[in-house]
Amino acid sequence: MQFLDDILAGRVVPGMNFNQKVWAMTVRIPAGKVATYGQVAKALGSPGAARAVGNALNKNPYAPRVPCHRVVGSTGSLTGFAGGLPKKQQLLIEEGVACAAHRVVMDRVEWVEL
């Protein structure tokens, strides 16, 4: 696919469509940290596009190399994971992210700056 190397390197380059930019930005989130859909949208210059970010991640063809499980709702909710919320929570816990009841524990999580 066009731009695959850029996406997997976390590079947003001219000519990418929105989904490709979202996937590239998501690669930048290291294990053990999370970002919100809104943070990803804002980092891409589209602060009102949190739902569009969620839609792009729902179509992520590169999981787990593009770690969409590290993107959560603004309240810490583990929304929008194609593999199901239990799987998303399991992946985050395996990376050391504190979770309970399908949410990250807001005061115990490391947020990434995008």
From TrEMBL:
<dbReference type="GO" id="GO:0003908">
    <property type="term" value="F:methylated-DNA-[protein]-cysteine S-methyltransferase activity"/>
</dbReference>
<keyword id="KW-0234">DNA repair</keyword>
<dbReference type="InterPro" id="IPR036217">
    <property type="entry name" value="MethylDNA_cys_MeTrfase_DNAb"/>
</dbReference>
<keyword id="KW-0227">DNA damage</keyword>
<dbReference type="InterPro" id="IPR001497">
    <property type="entry name" value="MethylDNA_cys_MeTrfase_AS"/>
</dbReference>
<dbReference type="Pfam" id="PF01035">
    <property type="entry name" value="DNA_binding_1"/>
</dbReference>
<dbReference type="GO" id="GO:0032259">
    <property type="term" value="P:methylation"/>
</dbReference>
<dbReference type="GO" id="GO:0006281">
    <property type="term" value="P:DNA repair"/>
</dbReference>
<comment type="similarity">
    <text>Belongs to the MGMT family.</text>
</comment>
<feature type="domain" description="Methylated-DNA-[protein]-cysteine S-methyltransferase DNA binding">
    <location>
        <begin position="17"/>
        <end position="97"/>
    </location>
</feature>
<keyword id="KW-0489">Methyltransferase</keyword>
<keyword id="KW-0808">Transferase</keyword>
<dbReference type="InterPro" id="IPR014048">
    <property type="entry name" value="MethylDNA_cys_MeTrfase_DNA-bd"/>
</dbReference>
<protein>
    <recommendedName>
        <fullName>methylated-DNA--[protein]-cysteine S-methyltransferase</fullName>
        <ecNumber>2.1.1.63</ecNumber>
    </recommendedName>
</protein>
<dbReference type="InterPro" id="IPR036388">
    <property type="entry name" value="WH-like_DNA-bd_sf"/>
</dbReference>
